[in-house]
């Protein structure tokens, strides 16, 4: 038997090659892999000894040769293939262990140039892997060092099982598909390409989906954004909630003060800002003292002991923070089912795709992550908002953007007071938000109100003004805008149009 080994990731390759030699397998290798194996004292042939042709173009061309690909692609069940190999003096290659240049790691660098990215596009490695995977009934294809041990176990028993070979072949094609998708996505400059190049590796299978009868899995690289410090494994719904919570909290820069949000079923049920974490928590929690039980808490500042002690008084599913003070972490870890997540980096990227499956395909849109400063702030009533009202309106607008439609949010300048989400009519959302504020014992006198989309009739605004709101922020654009504005003018309220709606379904 003969194995061709050419790997960028050298993890475990020396031990793997040594075991192959002990099994009587001849080694063939290239470039740095050959050097590593030789330095380890292993007998290894350079690939040019087989091709009769040196590596050229700075190593860009070394394995693209009939003597290599013929040995991999030959079918062992066809005598005509053996005859052709003999005619051209080509030997068989039975094992191909290859992994690819680190393209995705390279383009992840913020300072990477196009030329540097191009140099990390693997050509020969992809060709070798695809050839071996195509011929998997006769050739063992290995793209992942984690599979070396299982392959060796099979070879020690005489031959790697057919089912293993097929599984490894599928892994190869999935890997090269993801590799090509990353290249295509990087080079593409169209907003929506003719073919959508997306591929994600399986991270883990989840216990279930939204309900216990639904199976589910997580794909991609979630771990580059969040590190789990404590608690049982995340569920499908947990991951959705973490995403929603982090998207919301990133609306508030730490430079503006500490912001804290409480999330339930991807909807905010309370948001507060303050001079310190406890103050932000108290303002957020006061919005709704019932919904936070079993909810998600996210803060844009390190979780200190004061906050930890306050949170510890209620049952909380998940706490997300950029850091946890050691004593806070020790306290919060005492409840085994509470999940603690460290936010490693921002998740908000304005031009990132949001993907939703539909029958026969997917819907794709840009993420709704344009910063507030990019939106107009047009005063449409006779009275302009006061400075305090403007602060509150901008706060309300940032929160409203993350509430499911139809969304109505009442706020002061530093906290939410009432939130109405997901109702079939906007006026019902307004009434619900008023009721929630009443249940929490919060007055809406002097509050402001935000609506994620236009008020189609004056009734929604009239409910808000009757509840005590003195200023309104909404996109505008209704055929009845004049009626809505007139209702605000009659009450002496201020109204601002943003000219941009924020539906969230």
Task: Describe the model.
The chain has 505 residues and is an alpha/beta fold. It has three domains: 2-187, Rossmann fold (3-Layer(aba) Sandwich), CATH 3.40.50; 226-343, AICAR transformylase, duplication domain (Cytidine Deaminase, domain 2); 377-497, 3-Layer(aba) Sandwich (Cytidine Deaminase, domain 2). Helix content is 36%, strand content 20%. The protein has 18 helices and 21 strands. It has helices at 13-22, 31-39, 47-51, 66-73, 79-87, 103-107, 114-119, 124-134, 148-156, 162-187, 236-249, 277-287, 305-311, 326-332, 387-400, 426-439, 459-467, 481-490, and strands at residues 2-7, 26-29, 44-46, 95-99, 140-142, 202-206, 216-219, 226-230, 258-264, 267-274, 295-299, 316-321, 339-343, 353-358, 361-366, 378-379, 408-411, 416-420, 448-451, 471-474, 494-497. Strands 8-13-12-11-9-10 form a six-stranded mixed sheet, sandwiched between helices. A six-stranded mixed sheet has the order 16-21-20-19-17-18, with helices on both faces. Helix 18 (481-490) links the parallel strand 20 and strand 21. The longest helix has 26 residues, at 162-187. The protein is elongated. The two termini are 58 Å apart.
